[in-house]
Specification:
Order of helices and strands: HHHHHHHHHHHHHH
Number of domains: 1
Shape: globular
Distance between the termini: 29 Å
Number of strands: 0
Helix content: over 70%
């Protein structure tokens, strides 16, 4: 088995790590409902809290605090912006799962690569090739078809795709390793999350303490559930070509889509099928172009999901 375009043996362990990371992200629709009856804002707050606690321990263990100590005001401002967008993304996904909009959430993550390309044009003034324009056109047509067929714009999908696209755009400018960057984002969000959880508990409307040890452990597990796929992704990215990771990334929304259709039982109207068909064709075009470009420029980045 060889890596695309370089003639080297593809690291099967690296592929397995990549599949593991995206499979875990793809199974998130099965995890977050386990935290019911906690409302989405409370779940989001606990996700931030326990991810930050865990990543603080990890960063201490690997002695990775040095980059954060050298981060200046501008760096922290960039981290804060990234933290806001990932919090919006996490919160909207948890909300979508809680109201059985898993398929619409999956559409958002299918759209994310296309939104990243669009942001490159609008923000970074990048020039696109013909295949990239075709992919963007098909993606726009998919949203239009779904909107007309359902009588409403898939706003959840668009918020997820836009927030994750902006997060990736900003995060690319943060001069920090992945673990340090995630920890920094948590440090920024931690005070707000802690205050919100404290207010809920004092008001008697929080669920963290009053529903028994099993619920408490599930809430605490939001930290490892967030950090583990990121760590697997980081290990995979060091062992296999980014072009391979770029193809594996579609495992995440595909599993979410299947969960929404087969487990949750969400209705797939003809317009939805047509829209998803257009998105899948757009992503096939995008992947072909990605593989071609990565062969010429093997350092092209592939963004992980959250």
């Amino acid at each position: 088995m060889t890596a695309a375009g370089d003639g080297k043996t593809l690291d099967r362990g690296g592929v397995a790590l990549g599949i593991g990371s995206y499979a875990l992200w793809g199974l998130f629709p099965a995890f977050w409902p386990l935290l019911d009856p906690a409302a989405p804002p409370e779940v989001l707050a606990h996700r931030i809290l326990w991810t930050t606690v865990l990543m603080t321990a990890v960063l201490t263990l690997i002695r990775g605090w040095r980059p954060l100590r050298g981060l200046g005001p501008r760096g922290w401002a960039t981290v804060t912006a990234a933290a806001v967008f990932i919090a919006v993304n996490w919160g909207m996904f948890i909300y979508g799962v809680s109201v059985d909009l898993v398929v619409e959430a999956a559409l958002g993550y299918y759209m994310s690569p296309l939104v990243s390309v669009l942001l490159g044009v609008v923000v970074l003034r990048e020039r696109l090739g013909a295949l990239q324009w075709v992919a963007l056109g098909l993606g726009a047509a998919a949203v239009l078809v779904i909107s007309i067929g359902n009588g409403t714009v898939p706003w959840l999908s668009m918020v997820l795709a836009a927030s994750f696209g902006m997060y990736g755009l900003i995060k690319a400018t943060v001069p920090l390793p992945a673990a340090a960057s995630l920890t920094a984002e948590g440090i920024v969000l931690f005070p707000l999350a802690a205050v919100y959880v404290l207010v809920l508990e004092l008001a008697g409307s929080g669920t963290f303490i009053g529903l028994g040890p099993w619920h408490l452990l599930l809430m605490l597990s939001a930290g490892p559930a967030t950090a583990l796929p990121l760590l697997l992704y980081g290990m995979s990215a060091r062992r296999i070509p980014l072009s391979v990771l770029g193809v594996l990334m579609y495992l995440n929304p595909t599993l979410q889509f299947l969960w929404g259709v087969l487990v949750v039982g969400e209705r797939m109207s003809p317009a939805r099928w047509a829209g998803f068909g257009l998105i899948w064709v757009a992503l096939a075009v995008f992947s072909v172009d990605l593989l071609r470009r990565t062969r010429r420029s093997p350092d092209q980045p592939v963004r992980s999901t959250a």
